[in-house]
Write a structure and sequence with these properties.
Layout (H helix, E strand, L loop, with lengths): L9 H8 L5 H9 L14 H4 L5 H14 L5 E11 L7 H5 L5 E11 L2 E3 L15 E7 L6 H17 L6 H16 L1
Antiparallel strand pairs: 1-2, 1-4, 2-3
Length: 185
Protein backbone atom coordinates (compact mmCIF):
# COMPACT_ATOMS: atom_id res chain seq x y z
CA UNK A 1 0.00 0.00 0.00
CA UNK A 2 2.42 2.63 -1.18
CA UNK A 3 2.46 5.35 -3.80
CA UNK A 4 4.29 8.58 -4.45
CA UNK A 5 2.29 11.77 -3.99
CA UNK A 6 1.57 13.35 -7.36
CA UNK A 7 -1.32 15.64 -6.42
CA UNK A 8 -1.06 19.35 -5.74
CA UNK A 9 -4.34 19.37 -3.80
CA UNK A 10 -4.62 20.81 -0.30
CA UNK A 11 -3.58 17.94 1.98
CA UNK A 12 -0.90 16.55 -0.33
CA UNK A 13 0.65 19.97 -0.89
CA UNK A 14 0.88 20.56 2.88
CA UNK A 15 2.40 17.11 3.46
CA UNK A 16 5.08 17.73 0.84
CA UNK A 17 6.00 20.93 2.72
CA UNK A 18 6.59 18.69 5.78
CA UNK A 19 8.84 16.45 3.68
CA UNK A 20 6.31 13.61 3.38
CA UNK A 21 6.16 12.47 -0.26
CA UNK A 22 4.70 8.96 -0.19
CA UNK A 23 1.92 7.02 1.52
CA UNK A 24 4.17 4.68 3.55
CA UNK A 25 5.96 7.66 5.09
CA UNK A 26 2.59 9.22 5.88
CA UNK A 27 1.32 5.99 7.49
CA UNK A 28 4.39 5.87 9.73
CA UNK A 29 4.05 9.56 10.62
CA UNK A 30 0.33 9.33 11.47
CA UNK A 31 0.72 6.10 13.45
CA UNK A 32 3.26 7.81 15.69
CA UNK A 33 1.10 10.84 16.44
CA UNK A 34 -0.45 10.66 19.93
CA UNK A 35 -4.06 9.56 20.36
CA UNK A 36 -6.39 12.45 21.18
CA UNK A 37 -9.54 14.19 20.06
CA UNK A 38 -9.09 17.19 17.78
CA UNK A 39 -10.83 20.52 18.40
CA UNK A 40 -12.99 20.13 15.27
CA UNK A 41 -14.07 16.67 14.06
CA UNK A 42 -14.65 17.95 10.54
CA UNK A 43 -11.24 19.54 9.95
CA UNK A 44 -9.10 16.54 9.06
CA UNK A 45 -5.90 18.54 8.73
CA UNK A 46 -5.95 19.16 12.49
CA UNK A 47 -4.23 15.81 13.01
CA UNK A 48 -1.14 17.49 11.54
CA UNK A 49 -1.50 20.98 13.02
CA UNK A 50 -2.54 19.70 16.49
CA UNK A 51 -0.17 16.71 16.30
CA UNK A 52 -2.77 14.18 17.47
CA UNK A 53 -5.86 12.36 16.31
CA UNK A 54 -8.35 9.59 16.91
CA UNK A 55 -9.03 6.50 14.85
CA UNK A 56 -11.60 8.56 12.92
CA UNK A 57 -9.56 11.64 12.15
CA UNK A 58 -6.32 9.79 11.39
CA UNK A 59 -7.85 7.24 9.01
CA UNK A 60 -10.18 9.76 7.34
CA UNK A 61 -7.18 12.00 6.68
CA UNK A 62 -5.27 9.08 5.15
CA UNK A 63 -8.24 8.19 2.93
CA UNK A 64 -8.57 11.84 1.86
CA UNK A 65 -4.88 11.92 0.86
CA UNK A 66 -5.32 8.64 -1.05
CA UNK A 67 -8.33 10.13 -2.85
CA UNK A 68 -6.39 13.29 -3.75
CA UNK A 69 -3.75 11.07 -5.32
CA UNK A 70 -6.26 8.86 -7.19
CA UNK A 71 -5.35 5.79 -5.14
CA UNK A 72 -8.81 4.26 -4.87
CA UNK A 73 -7.65 0.88 -3.57
CA UNK A 74 -7.46 2.28 -0.01
CA UNK A 75 -10.84 2.06 1.69
CA UNK A 76 -11.94 3.79 4.89
CA UNK A 77 -13.78 1.31 7.08
CA UNK A 78 -16.07 1.75 10.05
CA UNK A 79 -16.22 -1.34 12.21
CA UNK A 80 -18.22 -2.03 15.33
CA UNK A 81 -16.27 -4.33 17.62
CA UNK A 82 -16.61 -5.78 21.10
CA UNK A 83 -14.37 -3.43 23.08
CA UNK A 84 -13.24 -5.52 26.04
CA UNK A 85 -10.48 -5.67 28.61
CA UNK A 86 -8.79 -8.32 26.45
CA UNK A 87 -8.41 -6.20 23.30
CA UNK A 88 -8.31 -2.82 25.11
CA UNK A 89 -6.76 -3.36 28.57
CA UNK A 90 -6.96 0.30 29.65
CA UNK A 91 -10.77 0.10 29.85
CA UNK A 92 -10.81 -2.70 32.44
CA UNK A 93 -11.79 -0.47 35.41
CA UNK A 94 -14.78 1.08 33.61
CA UNK A 95 -16.10 -2.30 32.46
CA UNK A 96 -15.43 -4.09 35.77
CA UNK A 97 -17.21 -1.55 37.95
CA UNK A 98 -20.28 -1.88 35.69
CA UNK A 99 -20.16 -5.68 35.32
CA UNK A 100 -19.85 -5.51 31.54
CA UNK A 101 -17.79 -7.93 29.46
CA UNK A 102 -17.65 -5.52 26.53
CA UNK A 103 -19.24 -2.48 24.90
CA UNK A 104 -19.79 -2.24 21.14
CA UNK A 105 -17.37 0.44 19.96
CA UNK A 106 -17.12 2.16 16.60
CA UNK A 107 -13.60 2.08 15.17
CA UNK A 108 -12.16 3.40 11.92
CA UNK A 109 -9.29 1.81 10.02
CA UNK A 110 -8.12 1.31 6.44
CA UNK A 111 -8.62 -1.66 4.18
CA UNK A 112 -6.33 -2.42 1.28
CA UNK A 113 -7.26 -5.54 -0.66
CA UNK A 114 -7.89 -8.04 2.17
CA UNK A 115 -5.60 -6.36 4.70
CA UNK A 116 -6.83 -4.08 7.48
CA UNK A 117 -4.45 -1.36 8.67
CA UNK A 118 -4.85 0.46 11.97
CA UNK A 119 -2.67 3.51 12.64
CA UNK A 120 -4.62 4.87 15.62
CA UNK A 121 -1.49 4.74 17.78
CA UNK A 122 2.08 3.50 17.70
CA UNK A 123 0.93 0.24 19.31
CA UNK A 124 -2.27 -0.29 17.32
CA UNK A 125 -2.69 -3.68 15.72
CA UNK A 126 -5.90 -4.67 13.93
CA UNK A 127 -5.25 -8.31 14.83
CA UNK A 128 -6.25 -7.45 18.43
CA UNK A 129 -9.84 -6.70 17.42
CA UNK A 130 -10.19 -8.76 14.24
CA UNK A 131 -12.17 -11.61 15.84
CA UNK A 132 -14.34 -9.10 17.75
CA UNK A 133 -15.71 -7.23 14.72
CA UNK A 134 -19.51 -7.33 14.80
CA UNK A 135 -20.24 -5.16 11.75
CA UNK A 136 -18.14 -3.44 9.11
CA UNK A 137 -19.02 -0.87 6.42
CA UNK A 138 -17.07 1.36 4.06
CA UNK A 139 -17.45 5.10 4.59
CA UNK A 140 -16.11 8.36 3.17
CA UNK A 141 -13.85 10.78 5.07
CA UNK A 142 -16.67 13.28 5.62
CA UNK A 143 -18.70 10.55 7.35
CA UNK A 144 -16.38 10.24 10.36
CA UNK A 145 -18.17 12.98 12.25
CA UNK A 146 -21.98 12.92 12.33
CA UNK A 147 -22.60 9.71 10.38
CA UNK A 148 -20.16 7.65 12.46
CA UNK A 149 -21.59 8.90 15.76
CA UNK A 150 -25.19 8.31 14.64
CA UNK A 151 -24.35 4.86 13.28
CA UNK A 152 -22.64 3.95 16.55
CA UNK A 153 -25.48 5.27 18.73
CA UNK A 154 -28.09 3.41 16.68
CA UNK A 155 -26.07 0.22 16.89
CA UNK A 156 -25.76 0.58 20.68
CA UNK A 157 -29.50 1.15 21.09
CA UNK A 158 -30.25 -1.97 19.07
CA UNK A 159 -27.64 -3.96 21.04
CA UNK A 160 -29.17 -2.87 24.35
CA UNK A 161 -32.62 -4.06 23.27
CA UNK A 162 -31.54 -7.31 21.63
CA UNK A 163 -29.29 -8.34 24.53
CA UNK A 164 -31.50 -7.12 27.37
CA UNK A 165 -28.64 -5.16 28.91
CA UNK A 166 -29.71 -3.53 32.20
CA UNK A 167 -28.49 -0.04 31.35
CA UNK A 168 -30.10 2.86 29.57
CA UNK A 169 -28.49 4.14 26.40
CA UNK A 170 -27.29 7.24 28.27
CA UNK A 171 -25.66 5.10 30.98
CA UNK A 172 -23.85 2.91 28.44
CA UNK A 173 -22.70 5.97 26.50
CA UNK A 174 -21.30 7.44 29.74
CA UNK A 175 -19.46 4.18 30.52
CA UNK A 176 -18.11 4.23 26.97
CA UNK A 177 -16.86 7.81 27.46
CA UNK A 178 -15.00 6.66 30.59
CA UNK A 179 -13.43 3.91 28.51
CA UNK A 180 -12.33 6.37 25.82
CA UNK A 181 -10.88 8.69 28.49
CA UNK A 182 -8.91 5.76 29.93
CA UNK A 183 -7.53 4.99 26.48
CA UNK A 184 -6.39 8.59 26.15
CA UNK A 185 -4.31 8.47 29.35
Amino acid sequence: MDFEFKSNDTFTKRLKAYGIHDFQSLLFFVKNLPYGRNTNREDLYLIISESKGTCSSKHAFLKAVAMENNFSEVKLMLGIYKMSEINTPKITPALSENNLNYIPEAHCYLKYKDERVDVTSATSDFARIKKDIMKEIEILPEQVSNFKVDFHKNYLKKWLTENEVNFTFEEVWEIREKCINNISL
